[in-house]
Write a structure and sequence with these properties.
The chain is α+β, with helices and mostly antiparallel strands. It has four helices and twelve strands. Helix content is about 20%, strand content about 50%. Strands 1-2-3-4-5-6-7-8-9-10-11-12 form a twelve-stranded antiparallel barrel. Strand 10 and strand 11 form a beta hairpin.
């Protein structure tokens, strides 16, 4: 015969009789966390969303699935968490096994115009952006050119080539290096070389929106069109902002600044990308380039409005 256990053995405030209901409810709690317990229609909807691989679509479906089957919220969460963990493991394995020529992504941009009749003008622009990202490293390469003629005379000629490696030491922080070459005789220089080393931080890192900021010392060497040469230590800062407004439209803002004793410069580009068909997109952009001390006879600010086609690969 079982004897009752004195309450003193459980402590003054113990309630031993409550242990039995808890033990009886445990199988029910476990059943609610089992994905097999999710209603078939809700599970089919979740399976379709997970198969799409689209993070924003999955988040939306999960929201409504929890509202439809609140008793299975734990099971839905467990199902989605497992999907996230599996995707992360596959991505990390792919990054570890990638060779030096793998994982490159890029965009090629082409724009231009040609007019005849009362005026004869021609304008061409092109840019190539490449990026490769692994677990620890990110490499960014950019090559761009602008050329314009009015009545047979060159009115704009700008060339740029840049390379930036990043070493990621945390989920958001990284160390960067940057090397850049520019030529723009209409802004007063034939050649300008820049090198920088500093720290970067991903201030915003979420689906649909990212913001990277960088700051560090730099060195610049400039050959001006008036035959003067300038070399100077500078401070470099930059930001890279991307906001996906919808599945087809993206807003971006890129800016960089070199602050130095002789001639500081600031560049910025605001762009709107609209997806057309497949990898093709239309791009409208507005760029500003400012030089604080241009040579005599030169204007310090250039602006460019551009419409172009972008091919992503």
């Amino acid at each position: 015969m079982l004897k009752p256990v004195p309450e003193q053995q459980f402590g003054r405030y113990a309630r031993p009789v409550r242990i039995l209901p808890t033990l009886l409810a445990a199988p029910l709690l476990l059943a609610n966390a089992d994905p097999a317990a999710i209603p078939l229609q809700v599970k089919a909807m979740l399976d379709a969303a997970l198969a799409s691989g689209n993070e924003s679509e999955v988040a939306t479906i999960v929201k409504y699935a929890r509202a439809t089957a609140p008793d299975n919220a734990d099971a839905i969460t467990a199902m989605v968490d497992s999907w996230h963990a599996e995707r992360l493991a596959k991505r990390q394995e792919k990054l570890r096994e990638a060779g030096p020529f793998d994982l490159w992504k890029g965009r090629a941009e082409v724009g231009g115009y040609f007019t005849t009749g009362n005026t004869e003008n021609i304008g061409l622009s092109g840019a190539l952006d490449l990026q490769r990202e692994t677990l620890r490293w990110r490499h960014k390469i950019r090559v761009a050119a602008d050329y314009q003629e009015s009545l047979g005379l060159v009115s704009r000629e700008h060339y740029l080539a840049a390379y930036e490696p990043n070493f990621k030491f945390g989920p958001r922080g990284y160390v960067y290096g940057a090397a850049q070459y520019e030529s723009d005789r209409f802004l007063g220089y034939t050649d300008r070389y820049s090198a920088s080393l500093g720290a970067g931080y991903s201030a915003i890192k979420q689906p649909g929106m990212t913001l990277d900021v960088e700051l560090g010392p730099a060195y610049r060497h400039t050959n001006y069109t008036d035959a003067t040469v300038e070399s100077s230590i500078a401070a470099r800062g930059s930001l890279d902002f991307d906001w996906k407004l919808s599945r087809a439209i993206t807003l971006s803002q890129d800016a960089s600044a070199y602050i130095q004793h002789f001639n500081s410069s600031i560049t910025g580009t605001t762009a709107l990308n609209a997806k057309l068909i497949g990898p093709l997109a239309a791009k409208l952009s507005y760029s500003v380039q400012y030089e604080s001390m241009p040579p005599i006879g030169r204007v310090g600010t250039d602006t460019t409005s551009r419409a172009s086609l972008v091919y992503s690969f």
